[in-house]
Amino acid sequence: MNQEIKVMNQEIKVIELFAGVGGFRIGLERASEQFKIVWSNQWEPSTKKQDASEIYVKRFGADGHSNENVCNVGVERIPEADMVVGGFPCLTGDTLVWTDRGQIPLKVVVVGDKVLSHDKSYQPVTKVFDQGIKKVYTLTLDSGITIVATGNHRFAMFGLEWITVDEIKAANKDIYLSCIDDNQIPYFDKVVSVVESGEEHVYDIEVENTHSFVANHMITHNCQDYSVASTLNRSGGIEGKKGVLWWEIYRILKDSEHKPSYCIFENVDRLLKSPAKQRGRDFAIILASLANLGYDVEWRVINAADYGMPQRRRRTYMVAYKNDEKLATKIRSQVPETVIFAGVIGAAFPSSKSEKGKFNKFSLDTDLVTVSNEFNKGKKTSPFFSAGVLRGREVTTVDVVPQYDGTRITLGDILVDEKDVPESFFIKDAEMPRWQYLKGGKSEKRVTADGFEYNYSEGPMAFPDSPEKPSRTIITGEGGTAPSRFKHVIQTPSGRYRRLMPIELERLNMFPDNHTEGVSDIKRAFLMGNALVTGIVSKIGMSLARFVNAST
Q1: What is the C-alpha to C-alpha distance for residues 99 and 115, in angstroms, rounded to an integer?
Q2: 3-class DSSP state for residue 186?
């Protein structure tokens, strides 16, 4: 009996990468006392104030926490661990980019061009990205200069602090951006408007060293996205576009003297379908690289609300385990089709095969460059479905639907009593017409900054948001008083309308109350818009602990 108790409580040491404000840690520590975070890393590039890292330290202490670029952290500085966890922006083509061959449209910039950077040096372009059609905004400065960009694209302010278009929209104060004039003299210009401008074809570039370039005289940050790209020696063969973050996970797993036995990763649901020109390639590269390191993998696209949680947030979750461990041996005794429904993820999130019955089996090449260049080339749809298993190099994947009949938490369940809500969160009567317009359906003619007229239409959004249902996906721009189509608005018992408070956004992600307290309300909303639903991690953690204990 004593031996059994000892085994059941065996410690699982965890490394938390790209930790944010600690969502994985909260979820795992709620799941089981077996999980112990021995090292964490959180670093936000190109900004002096490290809000997320500071909050992490405030909540969990500085012991074992790293606030530096993980790309610069050698594996010898990372303690031995049993598990690694972690969750791994764009301009229109006519944007003028300052290069060594003059100011040219972004869509004709090529690899090898040198672009003017924030420090007035010319830096080489290492990649160009065609991001496809995306929702955009027209940002106008006091001088009359405009630029059309996606909501998550970042621009420089004083002191090289970076701010996204979404954050500019949400700000309730004047925002001044860093600019460079025709004589390459720096100056600051005030943002006077940010206007939704439909959908346009957008592009971006990656710039070596400084990671910034000058577009329409504004200093902007280069691309960061989740996809995986071309060959590069320093990343072991291929590189990922978003600050090579996946390849930092890969490096840590590959170079560790004692390879972690387990991994849990989180990413956007579109990972299984990206990029648009080679559907499923990104996910195939991740799976193939894990297979090369000796891991089996389970994955599932999970909408938190489908399992009773208070927010509709769809994400891809992966659980990987070394295929020479007892856990893998136990799971390998079952056929892959069974593992999809009864493995670590399947046991945590019951499901059944969808009515469409989508099912696929195929093998992945051992050569990552071949996978990158050739996987699913020329096909219009991804071969990956919402759930699956990688065993060796064999992929089994099926489309599933959730099965859940437990308690469900709604938006109304997490709301603060009206009497405790500060007045600043209530919408003034004079602002209601603007909110109603933005939330409403519309079909109208609009004109771009260069005079092009186009038809714009969109359907209505719920206004106010229903307290009887889970919330919509919360976004980084939930903060600030400015009217917005995408911010949540509720009607209080007295009939007044208001925005959500930071504490309510925390509850929608199942964080402790006031976890992000200490920074501005806009920043707190931004941090929650980037966070995960911790209840998902808890359920995966509980399931993994049970499997580990049963196979020990």
Answers
A1: 4
A2: strand
Would you call 135 helix, strand, or coil by DSSP?
strand
Compute the Cα dihedral for 393, 224, 47, 214 and give only its sign.
Answer: positive
- Residue 342 has a pLDDT of 95
**CA dist., res. 397 & res. 283, Å (int):** 13
Give how far Cα 342 sits from Cα of 304, 313, 362, 389, 551, Å: 19, 23, 21, 11, 15
Looking at 197, 221, 245, the residue that finishes a domain is 221
Residue 23 lies in a domain: no
Number of domains forming the structure of the chain: 2
Range of the domain at 455: 412-529
A 10 A CB-CB count for 256 gives 17
Q: How confident is the model over 383-430, as pLDDT tens digits?
A: 999 999 999 999 999 999 999 999 999 999 999 999 999 999 999 999
Q: Residue 7 pLDDT more than 60?
A: no
Do residues 221 and 154 touch, judged by C-beta distance below 8 A? yes
Could you identify the residue written with the tokens 């859940």? 404
Final residue of a domain: which of 221, 243, 258? 221
> Which of 71, 90, 179, 223 is labelled catalytic?
223
Instruction: Give per-residue burial for 190-218: e unless 16+ CB within 10 Å, then b.
Output: ebeebebbbebebbbbbbeebbbbbbbbb
Q: Per the structure block, which two tokens stand in for 98?
A: 């300052």
Q: How far is CA 286 from CA 73, 196, 246, 445, in A?
A: 21, 35, 8, 43
Residue 275: is the preceding peptide bond cis (ω within 30°)? Answer: yes
DSSP structure class, residue 418: G
223 is catalytic: yes
Average the pLDDT over 486-506 and give the result.
96
Nearest to 220 by CA among 142, 148, 169, 131: 148
Full-model pTM: 0.77
Question: What is the CATH number for 469?
Answer: 3.90.120
- Look at the block and give the residue holding tokens 């917005």: 484
Residue 1: what residue type? M
Give yes or no for a contact between 263 and 15, defined as CB atoms under 8 angstroms apart: no
